[in-house]
Amino acid sequence: MLGLNKKDFSLLLIVALLTMLAPFILNPFPEGSELAQFNAGYPDLMQRFVIFGIFAIGFNILFGLTGYLSFGHAAFLGVGSYAGVWMMKLLTMNVIPAILVSVIVAGLFSILIGYISLRRSGIYFSILTLAFAQMSFALAYSVLTPLTGGETGLQLSLNDPRIIGTSVTESGSIPVTHLFGLEMRDSFELEMGAWLFTFNAGYYVCAVVLLVAFYIAIRIFRSPFGMMLRAVKSNQQRMKYTGLNPKPYTLAAFVISGMYAGLAGGLMVSMDPLAGAERMFWTASGEVVLMTILGGAGTLIGPILGAGMIKYMENILSKINSTILHEWFAFMPDGIEDLLVTLVYPFIGKGWHLTLGIIFMLVVIFLPGGLVEGGQRIARLFRRKKEEPKGPDPEHHPKPAPHVAE
Amino acid sequence: MDAIILQILNGLDKGSAYALIALGLTLIFGTLGVVNFAHGALFMLGAFCAVTLNGILTISHTVIDETRTDFLGNPLKVEVPYIYDIFGETLGASIIDWSVPLAILFAIPVMILIGVIMERGLIKFFYKRPHADQILVTFGLAIVLQEIIKYFYGANPIPTPAPEAFIGSFDFGQLIGFDANTIIYPYWRLVYFGFAMIIITGVFAFLQFTTFGMVVRAGMADRETVQLLGINIDKRFTLMFGLAAAVAGLAGVMYTPINSPNYHMGMDFLVLSFVVVVVGGMGSLPGAVLAGFLLGILESFASMGAVIDLIPGINQVIIYLVAIVILLTRPRGLMGRKGVMEE
Amino acid sequence: MGILEVKGVNKRFGGLQALGDVNLSVEENTVHAIIGPNGAGKSTLLNVLVGKLIPDTGSVMFDGQSVLGRSPHEINQMGISRVFQTPEIFGDLTVMENVMIPCFARRDGSFRLHAFETVFNEKALVEQAEQILIDVNMIDKRDMHAASMSRGDKRRLEMAMCLVQEPRLLLLDEPTAGMARADTNNTIELLKEINEKRDITMAIIEHDMHVVFSLAERITVLAQGTPLVEDTPENIKGHPKVQEAYLGQAHG
Questions:
Q1: Containing domain of residue C95, as a range?
Q2: A138–B320: do the CB atoms touch at under 8 Å?
Q3: Which residues pair with C172 in a beta bridge?
């Protein structure tokens, strides 16, 4: 269906179900209960899951397939964000033109950077992309302030010369982003017993975009083009002597992933029309690398899983403080309670980066294929008990992990 | 002329730091073939060795001074560092005053130990893995080290002053025959430069004149052959990693009076140091040093008012710009060796 | 006129004359071997033929067009395929994918952004790939991970990848180098089989005489960068010059 085989189509279907039902799935605990702190069904958090999912899916097309490790992809997200805000300032608060322009501008920018960076490979490529991104970051902070808003970031103001629509609403405030009248911040709340579910318009726009982006990624993975990208990673020498030019293939992958990053940037400002240079900082690029690796580079579902994991942890772990910890361990004798709290405390709250770093290292060391590989290993363990082991999996085909968190 | 000399001098301290970090990066890359993204964190750990030593030296106990009273009329409580009890007040005070230089002695064993643990415990397992994996795991390690420091020392920079004798500036211009007040240069920066030169010379002499250094250089050129000769190169490389860690650490120790250390200073330096290594030529030690100073000085020139007026923002991007141009025109860098990290 | 014409090629590396006035003509539908002791310039000559090195003087024409200054993928698109000393395959891909890639390269040229088709929906190409796998007896390994195969199978696969392109000239760079005797014999059998089934032009660079004499129809002997003689295997065997330059030496 949709040009996909059965396995891929069911994967798409699973992702579709999970994203559409996310407000339920992410809110499993009733309001006011102790476990409600693990709920993640808030519009802005769900939006972030999906937006970073798109970013990581795109990054995976470059890194997962071709093996070229870019350390500067956040630059494209940043450029996309700026372009999106400018569209809103100048043209309309409708998100469609903003998103389109974000994708186009990020695409053009990645043609330029990709063309130069791809003249080198390996570590040199990584450092070139890093240098370009840092340069963009530095420029956005300094000289380009008229375009980027410098340190304060680029935001809407009351005197934007918006061509379609008004500069100021009747109540005297800045108009909000919308999709043909449907405001992104609109939410519908559903109370069911002790549960409160929030359905946010902006989230659903992002979710639909994610599905389209994911569908395109599947098609690319299964296409001759996708196969060529894997050939680039595997053996460029053989590729050249087979009559194929690896350069345009890699550049195309670079630009496509840059456009995905621009799309993520465009969506970000569609939800919250503010763009800052810190989005382009190299640690932001490191974060998307992390998401992709954590989920499983080169697999379809991996980047989405990784993005979800990291954003979830960022939000939940960083909310926990020592009072909450004391509540958790309250059933223990006092001495042990204090000891446990002291032991756990460095890893939560402001220390969640530490947890992140440790998980990241563990994944690279023990599970280079990320969560997807971990899931496969566990699945194989169970299968081996039932039947004789089969030969290696014929297709590079990640099995959809059963416990998808988002 | 005086303006040019001033900019060169201004570039020296940053250039020294770049050169020292890049030197360590190159040593590790050249000997072990590992791209170490945690090297900036080692620089940062060095800086915190100075902070720690200062903290240890100033551990105090409370003494009641009967001769003086506080504003309520009670006998005054004074915090007296234990070190005063051991060495007497005058010597104790100057030991605390000199805590940054003293931290060199403290940092050398600590950093070598950290380096050796890092190599044996982690890096060792990544020799055969792709460079991307090496980058990723050391990047993860850098985050972890940085967060550990943040947990113990907080997020704010910790001022760690130089010894009193080196605080302030002197008129370097007058010394070399210019008008007074044209080239004012802080003492400590000159100390830092001198220190960097000593370390760099030491490392080169070590590699040039000792058997250990000879084996390491041979190993850098051709690891397998040296192994065939029956020399236990791995053990030496472990120590090499320790040495590189110590060089980065010492660079960090001495940098503390110039910039108060904070937990993310390593990352800030790392990106630039990588650029320095690439410009100098992957695997070339002289290249790393040369490029470090060159880029430090270039950065300082680009920060001149006249230059910024001409090309706004150039000071922010000059290093990256140079790196991009170098990589595209001279892929091996200024002094890169053939066959290192090539397709 | 041969399909491959090398005329007056010279190449110097500093003080070393690697190739000196090489003239060579490979006729269509023959197996032509280029032999010579180590250091005779065989690899240099091969690198000139595939565009990796540009000679100081001289010309290399393939089917009336110069190959000099072209990149490897362009030369392949002209109809020259190459087999390496150590098999170069796409280790991360399956056997079938390995063979599909040259099929696409042949049909679509050196680059095409076919991002919305599906590899295994290309029925014609799939058939072509399956046929070649049957021809080289590898169809049962269709879905295997290429890197996990034995060296002999990798060689077989590499050959299949070259053959499926139906090249007008197949270059083989010491195809049995470093192989055990049994593997060498297998490779010779494979090449013989290919030669019998298809009208194919092959140029083999080799220093193993056993391989050369079991396959070649024409032999060029290279010594110190210059062709000594060119003749049929029978004549070469007894040629005094060749014995002096090559056979007299300990056989590598």
A1: 90-153
A2: yes
A3: C83, C204
Q: Are residues C100 and C56 in the same domain?
A: no
DSSP secondary structure letter of residue A94: B
Does residue B18 belong to any structural domain of this protein? yes
Q: Is residue B283 part of a domain?
A: yes
Instruction: Look at the block and give the residue holding tokens 């000879």.
Output: B214
User: Per-residue pLDDT for chain A (406 aa), expressed as one digit of tens each?
Assistant: 778 888 899 999 999 999 998 888 888 888 777 777 778 778 888 999 999 999 999 999 999 999 999 989 999 999 999 999 999 999 988 999 999 999 999 999 999 999 989 988 888 888 889 888 888 998 898 888 888 888 888 998 888 888 888 888 888 888 888 888 888 888 888 888 878 888 888 999 999 999 999 999 999 999 999 999 999 999 999 999 999 999 999 999 999 999 999 999 999 999 999 998 888 888 889 889 989 998 999 999 999 999 998 998 888 888 777 777 777 777 878 888 888 888 887 787 777 888 888 888 888 888 888 889 888 888 888 887 665 544 444 444 443 333 333 3
B274 reaches A (C-beta below 8 A): yes
pLDDT tens readout for residues B208-226 = 888 888 877 777 777 677 7
A356 occurs within a structural domain: no
Confirm if B181 and B3 have CB atoms less than 8 A apart.
Answer: no
Contacts of A6 in chain C (CB under 8 A): none
Mean pLDDT of C30-35: 90
**B343 pLDDT more than 70:** no
**Does any domain span residue B176?**
yes
Domain count, chain C: 2
- Chain C residues in contact with A298 by the CB 8 A cut-off are none
Q: Kindly give the pairing relationship between strand C57-62 and strand C4-13.
A: antiparallel
- How many angstroms separate the CA atoms of A107 and A129, rounded? 15
Residues of B in contact with A139 (CB under 8 A): 313, 316-317
- State the residue range of the domain holding A183: 6-280
Chains B and A touch (3+ CB pairs under 8 A): yes
Residues of C in contact with A242 (CB under 8 A): 73, 76, 81, 101-102, 105, 161, 165
Whether C160 is in a domain gets the answer: no
**Looking at the predicted structure, is the pLDDT value of residue B207 above 80?**
yes
Percent of chain B with pLDDT over 90: 25
Residue of A nearest to C167 (CA): A242
Q: Are residues C131 and C233 in the same domain?
A: no
Give the gap in angstroms from C-alpha A61 to the nearest C-alpha of chain B.
16
CA distance C113 to chain A (A): 6
Pair (C74, C171) in one structural domain = yes
In a domain, C84, yes or no: no
For residue A389, the distance in angstroms to the closest alpha carbon of chain C comes to 15
Q: Is the domain of C222 the same as that of C174? A: yes
Q: Where are the beta strands (DSSP E) in chain B?
A: 60-69, 75-81, 169-171, 184-186
Helices (H), chain B: 2-32, 39-57, 82-87, 89-97, 99-121, 131-153, 172-175, 187-209, 211-221, 223-228, 233-255, 265-280, 285-302, 305-310, 314-329
Residue B338 lies in a domain: no
Contacts of B132 in chain A (CB under 8 A): 67, 69, 126
- Which residues are within 8 A (CB) of A373 and not within 5 positions of it... i.e. 6 or more apart? A296, A299, A367
The CA distance from A317 to the nearest CA of chain B, in Å, is 15
Rounded CA separation A342/A325 (Å): 9
The closest CB to that of A225, out of C105, C109, C114, belongs to C114
**Chain A residues with CB-CB distance to C under 8 A?**
3, 219-220, 222-228, 230-231, 233-235, 237-245, 248-249, 252, 256, 391-392, 394-395
Q: How many domains does chain A have?
A: 1
- Output the pTM of the full model: 0.87
> For position C223, which CATH number holds?
3.40.50.300
**How large is the average pLDDT for residues C29-48?**
86
- ipTM comes to 0.90
Is there contact between C and A if contact means ≥3 C-beta pairs under 8 Å? yes
Contact C145 A223 (CB under 8 A): no
CA nearest A352 in B: which residue?
B147
Residues 6+ apart with CB under 8 A from B73: none
How far, CA to CA in Å, does C211 sit from each of A139, A323, C168, C183, C207? 63, 79, 22, 12, 8
Structural domain boundaries enclosing B27: 2-329
